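To whoever picks this up:

The parser on our side crashed when reading a file containing two proteins. I've narrowed it down to the boundary between the first structure block and the second sequence. Both blocks are reproduced below exactly, byte for byte. First block:
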Amino acid sequence: MIKAIFFSVFDVSQGPKVLHQVPADSVTSSALSTSSTLFHFPTYSHYLIPRPDLCSRLITFTTRTHRILSHPICLPSSSYPRNAYTFSFALVLAATTPFASYATVTLKLASLLKTLEEQSRFLSSDQSAPNTGKIYALCEILLEDLNNYSESMIPIDDTNTLNIKLFPSYPPPPPLFPYHVPLSTVDLAALTDPNWDLTMLRVLPHIDGVNSMKQIALLADADYKLVRKAIEHLLYHGCLLLLDIFSFGAIYAPTAEIGTFVGDKEMQEECAQYVTLPFGRLGRAEEETVAGNQLVELYLRLRQGLMVKSFCMEHEESMKRIDVRRFITFGVIKGFLYRVHRYAIVASPKRVRKLDTEQRRNPGSVEAEDMLRQEEYVDVDIGSSSRMSELGKFLDGRHSFDEICTELMISERELMVSLKAWGDIQIICR
């Protein structure tokens, strides 16, 4: 939010001077004013009306409580006193306010007013008293419109109009990996424009909360890097959420936020509307949604070490009317469920290093030293398939089952079968 807007110039007799300010007495106070200013203008005047070599640059500085954005302009001309006219429109924000979008407004405002001054002496010809006249009105309308509507359109004269919009500044999207599953939070079909990027148009139909990033790239027949950029763009604008790959072999457990769900009846009702199946097991339409207390009890039954498959079997009667995927997804989206990932570590692998063999044959040889750097391995008694060779690099405890299955394009059951060939495998859940 903008705290104040002011217009300052270099006066040939008084030096840097504030001519107009909104609100009044926010930057410099009059003799009759009893309110304190946001900052002491004379202390920072050499930043707001600087030397000519520092003009035409974005200048931002902070006081203890406020940030000031300015883009001073110096127009040399023999028609001005001292052969130059120096002015500055500045915005005052709270010190903690993200200012990237406001910097754009400052630059555009300075550029437009520079053009108006060069064309018609719009600024220097204004002889209005301080805090009156057309420049003061411009500051007043700009402050009110940007704070209330984040945009402003102000007619300057018959041929010029000031159009300014505050575009929101979002944090960068989180890192994307092939095993992430995007879920739309808006109706993407309603937002689609035929003129959008071709990759984006091919990707959108496959964003359903089920397909992973890699699956979307394959289904869209598009390069994965381009698909990732398209998804990043949607994430940046808040159109998507990222989920884990859903499987009945996955493990979920409540977080500390489960207490919020237990005490929030509206959230329970929202959950019931989202997870209740439209038809019962016998094909009859259900007239009522699942009770909130029943959902609370089911969420509290999830725990470490309990797979979704086992959970559904234990509560078969209660889960008849519930969409299991939506049941889990709702908890993850609201933050009171978290995924317990599984990682594999080789404890006693059925493989030996080529280095060990070479060192036994030729201790201290050049070949042994090269292998020491490269850490080459040779498989023993596990076959020579490329899949087994690729699997080996994921068995260091740093790659989740989701990542391994996505990269190797195998199911979790196939992964477990392959892991048995590696001897003593330790599976860690965290």
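<<boundary where parser fails>>
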Amino acid sequence: MTDAARLKATVYVGGLDHAVNEKVLADAFLPFGEIVDVSLPKPDLPSSTDPHRGFGYVEFEIPGDAKEAIDNMDQSEIFGRVIKVSAAKPQKESNEGLGSRTAVWEQEGWLAKHAVSDEDKLAAEQARSALESRPDNPMQGLEGLDVAGPQPA
């Protein structure tokens, strides 16, 4: 299965109680389809005593099962806590987004999103040339408008 297909078949589950483990999470989502993998990311700090970071991922065999799980499990309760269930997003690379060591405009994702297309450059150039070809006198063409009131016939 490709990474894109795996991502479509994976759901994010947030707001989990620390009593929830992989088996509990798998049992909660089993009615919606065959589960390939369940993961609960561990805390980054080695000194942390928490079993996981309060969220997890459930990967289904079929992407349609993931959609059904999102529709039915979002805002439901596990161990007395309301959980958030949504489609999983791709993990950002460590050199992208906030906290990276490179400037945001040097990052490939930002550049692809904010780059100016050739059509936009052409339109800007045409607008600039139209401004330059305007007459020097801004009052040109307004002769006769300095008289107020009705015009005699």
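After patching the parser it read the second block fine. The radius of gyration is 29 Å. The longest strand covers residues 55-60.
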